[in-house]
Design brief:
Blueprint lengths: L25 E5 L5 H10 L6 E4 L8 H11 L15 H14 L4 E4 L7 H14 L2 E6 L4 H13 L5 E5 L1 H8 L30 H8 L2 H24 L22 E2 L2 H15 L5 H16 L3 E4 L19 H10 L3 H13 L3 H4 L13 E4 L1 H5 L9 E4 L5 H13 L17 H11 L4 H4 L12 E4 L20
Parallel strand pairs: 1-4, 1-5, 2-3, 3-4
Antiparallel strand pairs: 6-10, 7-10, 8-9
Helix pairs in contact: 1-6, 2-3, 3-4, 3-15, 8-10, 12-15
Length: 487
Amino acid sequence: MTAATLPPALTPQAATPLAAPAAWPVRLLLDSDDDHAVHKAAYQWADPARGRVTTDPTPHTTSPAYLALDVLRAMVRNGFSRPEAERMSTDPAWRAVACWTLACDLREAIVLRAHRLTVERLRRLGAWRDATGIRLTLLAHVPEQADEQRLRMRLQDAGLTDVMTLRGTPAVLDAIGPAASGRRYGPPPHDHAHPLPTVPRSSVAAFRADCWRRQNETDFAHADGQYRAGYAAARTWLARTLAPQPPPAQVTEPADGRPAEPTVFNPREIEALRLFLARLTVLSPSPQHTVARVRGAQAGFLSRSVLLNVPDDLTSCAGPGITTVPITPRIAHTITLRLPNPLRAAAVAALLFTGTAKSLLSMTQIASVDDRSTTVAIDRDSRINIGEPPGPRHMYAVPPRARPLLRAAVEFRRRTPRTAAAHGLFANCFGTADRFKTLIADAGLPIPALVHPHPSDDWHTAARGWHLHTPEPPAPHALPRLAGVRT
């Protein structure tokens, strides 16, 4: 397979920095009457899920770091509020603000009590706007002309010269706009998936029939649905990804008349195969679902004259779908709420969706994350066997709800001084035992790969593929019918 036939995620290109749109002029809303309706309208206008936040700076402090934490709190990232949580200093906190803004498509922000902001705080807000292109609105309460004059001088000293001013309660309310509609308060609902019973440890040839014999009608319907999903995904992937193999007539057969030997997948095809298996199982709610999907994928491969070999007992291995946790809305909400540091949030998410050991995950480089944050490639061999030819990389799929976390982490690293693409993405996250324990305690989520560590490689990295060079059977309209079951 040539590089041209590979999916974009497998081409060797690192993620590019997130581009910021052109900066809006700063809107200065002067509420000379200090009307409570203005405060209420600003709070009701906010909707972080739709890219709008309202920040109320903590009173009785002039620290720029506190203002950054106030902005993170407005983004519903307030895990630092717990007494034992990790603290962020000024520069990392503002880098986190910029990275979350770009990764989560935050577009507008209102900052209350702007008349109390110092020059340094205003300068930080201006740098945030310049780095992200966010539409920044400052809401000030200046009943006296002298108060307004002092505020304008601080804005000038902070470099905020492109200021558009509106005054008066009616004009301010009109500039803020209507309240957000359909906002959800609190975490998303709990996750639910239909549990599957223990599936048979049969090979692909007998798996579906054994499920039918051993399970009741309801359980078989659910297991068969997972099997069919894997079957369809495998056939679709083969049609889109692998280059067509020569027909049997063009394959050179041995002189003794035996059938041609199967052709082993080359390293690039193996990487693509690993990524397919990771994508197939990354959102699997249980190991039983994973086994059914993989057996279906094996059947789909055989229908296209391709043999897929995986470990016999998948449930005793580690890796995607076995020691992973699906990144559901509730899991994503928990991570972002409790871990405002982008590196820490991405590290915990990677532990959940890769299901691999932290020793392997610690080898992840900044350049390992692809341009769209859809894949993570860990090249363990180049780090261990220095000087030897590179082998297939460990490929992991990033589920959609974890991609903003990876984007924010990569951007955070890129904005850190003296950082190169070959540096570790999760450096200082898995290092010392105390730091790692603190990270897990902050996340507050069970991580199966830590509870059930596995010394060998993840199951999908042991998968192998062969082109069989046999006549391809005609594509069936459905899977083989089982007696008494509607297919």
